[in-house]
Amino acid sequence: MAKTEIRDLSVDELKSRLSDTREEYMKLRFQLSSGELTDFTRLRHTRRMIARLLTALTARERMSGKEGVA
Question: 9 Cβ partners below 8 Å, 6+ apart?
Answer without folding.
Answer: 17, 56
